[in-house]
Amino acid sequence: MATTTDPAAGTDALTVVPSRFPYRTIAMGTVGSTLLMLAALGAGGILIRDPLLGHGPLSWIRYGHGRALATALLYLGFGLVVWAWVRLGRYVLDGRVGAKPVVVAAACWMAPLLVSPPLFTRDVFSYLGQGAQLLHGKDPYAFGPAELDVLPDVVVNVHQLWQTTPAPYGPLFLLVSKWLVGLTGGNMILGVILTRLVIMIGLAGVLWSIPRLVKHLGGRLPVTLWLAVASPMTVIHLVGGPHNDLLMLGFLTTGVLAMLERRPVLSVFLVTIGMLIKPTAAVALPFLVWMWAAQLPGGGPVKRFFRALLPALGVFGPVFVVGTWVSLGSMNIGWFTGMSAPQLIANWLNFPTGIGEIFYNMAHIMVDVPPSPFVTVFRSAAWVVLAIFVVRQWWLARAGGNQAVLRAAAALLAVAILAPPTLPWYLTWGFVLASAFPWDRKHLAGVVGVSVFLVLVYYPTGEQALYDWWFIGGVLAVSLYAAASLLKPDPLGLIAAWRKPESLDR
Asked: Which residues cross the membrane (predicted)?
């Protein structure tokens, strides 16, 4: 049995609520994710030349009415996953279920997606293309996969935007991709599945560190697991995608935990490894130095900072150099320039880009002007705002401890929102760390709405839907309904109206 506050009876009244394992909720989400997996065969990030479904009796699912049916089933599956997640969230917030059912639910919802075609993205094909470049002696930081004259089944599936674009990822992840392509060759189905399995190492790191982070940061473990592990952002974007952000997050969370547990050398080592997978992890490193400094005896915070900075650099430098050299066979730091490649993406999900586009459209009514100057100006201004915000958060974190972790999470969220581009799964960088802190129910409802919105603003094929305004209107309505459903089941009374017995003629 579990006790929970009954709002209708006052804050001091407690209602006894049966603690039951949420079998039906978990089953609902599992059915939904199974539908996602099956429908993705026709409506997801399918292969250009599919050896299984390209021809034969099941090829109809990729074309015409078959594809339309697959798309409808995919969105139905998504709806079931979100419905199950929100129901599970209400149970967690009411104290009716603990941490174990949340982990079981997340595992059941993720399992079908391990063998699914990519969902809402085609990035995994870029991972394999860049790994193929490294495998065959090409520099992924100088050219895109289009330069390869081997493995055509790998190259042809890379999105057109990234065919000639240098890799924006860390050298260690390119080494992982190289190994994967070495194992799978041109077998893209096996390549995608193995990439997911490798990325799940990051999920294991997150799962291991979250209970310990919660003890330090004051959150509730079931709520944190529900928010960071069982959410559609993790289940569908990071696993169903899949995205290497999950692998980076495993090293980031374990690194932050190591610092909280006063193991600073291990902490800097782990986060530097995370940076060698995805450079974003570097944002956390200056905050770790403050945390290290706060653990040193004597002196003021600035003096302790410099006493911590030197050993931190002593750990970071060798790990960075050796990691880069082992991965690439040389001290190739071209990945710093490669990080500018994603800036080719321009859409209003990135706030500065969206503001620039608004001003462009206002000016375009009166005079024929190109959009690029407006977007460039606001992006440049956003870089300044971002630099000021991150530096301020870093300075306010000088006391170290929990406050430094919270401000590092804020800095990671700011980078995801203000630095171009903003891609939906980028917000997990800050959310996963922030999830270990206490949360208000209304704020969690906002996270539900944002999570649903950020999955749906891309089509299942991986193409963005941000300028399909009727579609976005529907996405916004669904997101708001999902957010309200966390606060109150069936907030519009739709299910109740459907179930209400007919009372006329009685």
From this structure: 26-48, 68-86, 98-120, 188-209, 221-240, 268-293, 305-328, 373-392, 404-423, 443-459, 466-484
